[in-house]
Every structure is written in structure tokens, then in C-alpha cells.
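S2.1 Query sequence (S-layer homology domain-containing protein)
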Amino acid sequence: MKKILAVIAMIASMAMAVPAMAATNPFMDVPQGHWAYDAVGLLASRGIVSGYPDGAFKGAQPATRYEMASVVARALVAVDADKASKQDLELLKKLVMEFKDELDALGVKVDKLDKRVAVLEDGVGGWKIRGTFMFDAKFANDTDNGQYYYNESNKKNDFEKEQFRLYLTKQIDENTYFYAEYRTGADDAGDDVNGRGDLQHMMWSHLFLDTKLPYDIGFRVGRFTVDFEEEYGLYTDNDAVFGDFRTDGFRLTKQWSNFRATAVVGRNDNLGIDGMNDSGSGTHMTYVLDLNWQPGEKFFAGATGYWFDDDSTPDTAGDLGVKNYGLYAGYKFTPAVELKGIYYFQDLGKDVSGAAYEDSPKAWKAVLDVKQDLLKFTGLWIEYSQQDNTFLGYNDRYSIGGGAYDHVGRNMEYANPYGTSKWWFVKADQQWNDKWSTFIRFANVGYDTAGLDDATEWGLGVGYQYTPAIGFELAYDQVDHGDNGWAVGDPEVARGKDHVVRFRTTINF
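Output C-alpha cells follow.
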């Protein structure tokens, strides 16, 4: 019983507030041996409640009924559902009933506490099913002989199930959590699905269990996402420069004060990166190590290493190993203004990039993130990046709607392998009230390649939250790929302008 037990000492003047009809003297000590001491002591030992101001749990010291009631009230306000088990919550309910009169005298509404317990119980023990459904109506046009990059299969207009996802979760106990995600749709992030008609491609994209090992080590096993750029707020919309993939394997996490280490061992990745697609066929082992330091609320820094080791392709395939290293940092000048970025460098097997091409490409980006709290009328995201054209990263980033939409990096595979592309992305979001929102966005890439024109994208939209569960959005977006006259005979090279008007319905349930 070394955990501290928080007790609010009641001054004598509060006795005047005690209802005259109270059946029990609230200043009477709870007798030694009463079950309430054991209950509070157990909750304190499990970290559910905190203790006296001096940090000690005085289990042998008698407490008045008022003091016990204060402990109960504070516990129910501050209890952490991630720590509390169903048995813990049953104990709290029992304590509420025991000290009901004292809680009333303190002005604490017992019915509200009952509701708080019900909410906490709702998060422990039972299965939860949630979901997201996006339906897009897209009306497109183009100047490129009917390619219609915003709509798959050269459709000018299209209605499609953009995204359907079900989330199945269970809080098994205070340390163990299960998560499963079932998905389909045009933007399913992992399969070639068009989102039209009767959908045939469905999958369980995530299946994992989180628990705690000795020495407070977090342990995850199953299929899960590896995306450190998202974890540290290094991108918005779509997508990371590198990362953001799923793997089958294990993850270990350990926190030491302001330092955290995360290690991943996996296989069967779904990395959608040209040159690394074989990693998803089970030919590569994946090793990841992230070291993160955050000494305060303003600053963070760290390093991430990815090692993809080919161990299953024939020896004649050559050296297909990939190593990717990242150094990142961020600083908040104010809670509303943050400067952050990441620098990557790779070591590619000679048969990944080709012997004649750069085998140690680099990429970096810097982001200025300004929240609407500062500017009042808008939030602002300004991102600049550079990457060597043989860098293995995501080239379809900055699209308005994921992989099922056009994007400025569509011609990246035709870029000079000795060049360095330069990217801009700017987005302004406006939240006018709890119903209405708007956005404006701009993206540009210069390929550093003679004859291959820069590509530019811009778009805008307005959103309306009809109910807490249903939202509508009307948006316009355009990508101009340039003339690209040098490749006029190649039908795969994107050229001209493509644009779309999109009406999206989003349902969260």
C-alpha cells in the first residue's frame, strides 16, 4: 500500500453544510477493518487513485467518512480507463453507495458519478465496433485525350465507395488491448480496387494485440502500421515521404522519462514504393528502430532506421537490400507555431537502383505548421521538400483524396535519375464554427529533368457537418502535368490538365 491516497481534508466549517437528516456522523472515523480501507488501498496500489499531499498512503491511520467520500469523488473524476479493470470499477461503485450521504453533503451529484462509472465500464471488457464510410461522386474533365486520372479506368464521371472501414476493438484488461480493421473501397491503401459496383476486394488490414511485458515494456504482435512521420506530426493529408506501411510482426516500446525506444521486426510489408514491391511478397525481413527524445512540450528530436533484408529471392536476383535512415526534429515557438522536418538517406543494393544510377539517394523536408488559434481566420501548413530522383519514397503524396486521385508526382518514374526533384505543398484550413469548414491547397513539383515539365495542383472545398455522424464536402481540384512534348509518343506519360468536382458524404458510426 505504498501508492499515495489522495485525501481532501474537510475543515470544521463544512460541518454546517451537512444535512441534518444524515444517518451517519460524517466526522466519525471509518472503523479499522472496514472493507473500504482495503478497497481504497487496492485501488491505490493499482494506480487508480492518488494519495495524501506528502505522497504517502497512511493505511493504518483512521479516516473520517468525509475523507473517504472525498477520495471516492476524486477517483471517479480522475480515474484512467486504460488502467482500470472491470473489477476496479465495481469497487468504485460499491464505495459510491457506501458514502452516498457524504457525497451528497459535499455537493457531489451521485447520479453524475454513476454516469461516469457507466462510461468507464463501457470502455472495459466489451467488444466495440466502429466504422467509417465515404461515398464520392466525381465529375471530371481533362485535356489529355480522355485519360481522366481522377477517375480510374478512364471514366469521365464516377460514383464510388471511396472508403469503407470497420474497427473491431476489445479492452481485455488494464494492460491488454485487441484491434482489428476491415476495409474495402477505392482508397483501401493496399489493393487494386476501383470502388464501383459490387465490391469484391475486402481485407483485414490490421490485426494486433497490445499488452505489457515486465519492466513496463509495451508489446505488440500481429499486423500493424509503421508510420513514424505521422506519429511525430510530420505530414498532413497524403502522405509520408517514407514509411506508412503495414507489416506482420512484433513491436517493442520502452519509455525512460523523456526518452523512448521503439523496435519492430516484421515481414510481408505492403510498401507501395517502386523498387521495393517485392518486400510485400514475403521475400524481405523488415527491421525498424526509432529513438525519440522529447525533453519538454516545445522540442522533440530523434532518429529512425529501416533495414529491409532480402532473404528469399534467387541468388541470381542480386543485391535487393534497402537501408533507409531518418533524422528528425521539431520546435514549437508557441503552442500554435511549430517548425519541424526530417532528413533521409538511403543505401540501396546495387540491383535495386541499377549499377549506373545513384545508390545512396537523399531526401528531406521542412514544415511550418501554424494553427488557426494564432491567425484566427485560418490554419496554415507550408511544406518544402527535395528528393534525389532515385530515392525510394512515395511519389503520390499531396493528392486530394489518396491513391484513387490524380497527383503531381505522377511522372516521377520518367525523371532524370541523376536529378533532384523539388516539391512544395501549402494548405490553409478554416474552421468557421462546429458546422462549417473550408480549405485551399496548392502543390508543385519540379523534376529537374529536361523536357519533363513541372506539375502543379490546386484545389479548394467547403465542408458541412450535418450531424455529429454525417458530413458533406464539395471540392474542386486540378492538376496540370504540362505539355511534356518530348514523350508525345508514350501514352503512359501524363500531360495536360485534369480536374474534378467532388461531392463527398462521410459517415462515422
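The helical segments are 35-45, 65-78, 86-98, 100-105, 110-122, 228-231, 350-353, 372-375. Confidence is low (pLDDT under 50) at residues 1-25, 51-60.
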